[in-house]
Amino acid sequence: MTHARFLLAATLALTLAACGQQTTPVAAAPGAGAPAAEAIAGAYLVGFKQEAVSAQGLSAQALEAQAALQAQAIAAAGGTLTSQWAEISAAAVKLDSAALARLKANPLVEYVEPDLVRRAMGFKSGVTDSKVSAGLSAQAVTGQALNAQALYSASGEYTWGDNALRVQNLRAGNYTGAGVAVCVGDTGIDGNHPEFARKIKGFRNFVTTEANRNDPYQLNDVSHHGTHVAGTVFAQLGTGTGATGLQSGMDANGVVGVSTGVNLYIARVLGDTGSGSSSSIINGVNWCAAQLKSQGGTEDKVVISLSLGGGRASQTEQRAYTSVYNKGALTIAATGNDGAAVSYPAAYTNVVGVGAVDSNLLKADFSNFGTQVDLVGPGVDVISPVPLGQGTRASASGGGVTFSDVKSADLSAKATFSGNVVAAGGTNNEFCGAGVRNAALSGNIALISRGTCSFEEKVANAAGSGAKAVMIYNNAAGALGLSLTNSYSIPVVGILQADGQALLGKLPTTGTVAVTGADYESYNGTSMATPHVSAAAAVVWAAKPTLTNAGLLNLLTSTAKDLGTAGKDNNFGFGLVDPLKAITGQ
């Protein structure tokens, strides 16, 4: 009767509000005026007062009545309901300015805030000369990540990240995460990639604005990010695609994930461009949690892995993440790549924030920092699957020598060219200066030194001179990944300093540059660190199934490898996740 009386009173209030008779309008939450770049035009999230009608303890009938009342409030204001989450007394809506004002004035409404844009938190390995690429230092790519003296390196199918987490030891103890679900919220997956062995347990698309993205075995991961993230979690041992799809130096069988025994679910919450809405992500996260047996699903434990985020907080998101935590799931999210404050959702209460380290266990320059960093994982130069044929593999030779550690530029054409190699010219052969041309490059391969101007400027000058291919050699130790601004119709690669200088001394001579398709790619980002930690959490949970989500997090943080300042700090949190120590104490 108490609920019935309240709903009757609330209905009366709703009627008055719809007629413009509300006495005290409710202010919008901070962020309701978010810039267009961070919010979706005309799309909002509305939170109803939970202290008045709490979803906790309501019967199914009362919860249904509450949802109907809230939907009526939205309709009465002139809004269009797009998603509703009765358990957290919130909804996603479309509103014009008049409807927005009316809904804010409703006495049942606590806040109205924008439906924010969230983005993937990973990017292809590469740097520019003019500035750091997305916060990544040249040292992180060209020195630390590939340095032979690094603390951790790849061995066989085991990536350096696997070895940092002692995955071989975990597998020897049969700790693979069997019996636990990992639900990855991202851009989708290429389910046909052999690394996944067609073992995807569940898939659902929540980006309703894009057609024909509903099948994990058909095109759905246009940005490649989700496949890469899922591979870190779940790539199967011994299932690589073969030599033609591999990057230089990889094992013939590809890579192996941290938790090959888990049940893998994919929630496609980010679209073709690598971005998505808060509302789509909430829908995906709720679907992940719905896999729990306690929610009518089939899974005992669910880890939700989110390699995504943005800079503004959302009250609705916080409600959603608290809700799935209270249901028993553990949400793990990327802290972001701005070298600044921790992004959302990683910064929320009841979400585990993950930063990134390189193969020397040094903080990645791009990794965000703050008190919300809980753990770190491998996040620099992480090799993992991408949709078949959609990666890029580079090779180069010159003067009779085939070069090692050749990297393609991110926006290079996929093409092969053989011909004469010609020094581009300029100070130290750096070929700098906007619009500079060298007629000798026409029809040939331009050989250019890294230096004081951007790779974009060098390549633009070479292409403008008629070059058919470009080799840029490093001016420091280590391999050279290249980040460009524009796409080019010629192959562009980075080569080692020693190879470039030796080739320069052999001119005139001939060479070959090739950029072809690949089934694997090297990415950087807290996006890459997050699935390492999510998979590690699943492995530990499977080994210790009596733990709650709170108990699991406490174990993971108390057994992490302490890095940086002793104890928890803002750069590394509690340190590098150590699943073997969490399980065995060793």
Descriptive report:
- The chain is an alpha/beta fold and 586 residues long.
- Helices cover 26% and strands 23% of the residues.
- The protein has 14 helices and 24 strands.
- The chain has an eight-stranded mixed beta sheet with strand order 17-16-23-19-20-21-22-18, with helices on both faces. Strands 7-8-6-10-12-13-14 form a seven-stranded parallel beta sheet, sandwiched between helices.
- A hairpin with a 4-residue loop joins β2 (80-85) and β3 (90-94).
- α2 packs across α3 (97-104), α7 packs parallel to α12 (526-543) and α8 (278-289) packs parallel to α9.
Produce the secondary structure layout:
Blueprint: H1 2-18, E1 39-48, H2 60-77, E2 80-85, E3 90-94, H3 97-104, E4 109-120, E5 123-124, H4 138-144, H5 160-164, H6 167-172, E6 181-186, E7 200-205, H7 225-234, E8 263-268, E9 275-277, H8 278-289, E10 302-306, E11 308-309, H9 315-327, E12 330-334, E13 351-357, E14 373-378, E15 382-385, E16 391-398, E17 401-402, E18 407-408, E19 415-423, E20 445-449, H10 455-464, E21 469-473, E22 492-495, H11 497-506, E23 509-518, E24 520-524, H12 526-543, H13 549-559, H14 579-584
Parallel strand pairs: 6-8, 6-10, 7-8, 10-12, 12-13, 13-14, 19-20, 20-21, 21-22
Antiparallel strand pairs: 1-3, 1-4, 2-3, 4-9, 4-11, 5-24, 15-24, 16-17, 16-23, 18-22, 19-23
Helix pairs in contact: 1-2, 2-3, 7-12, 8-9
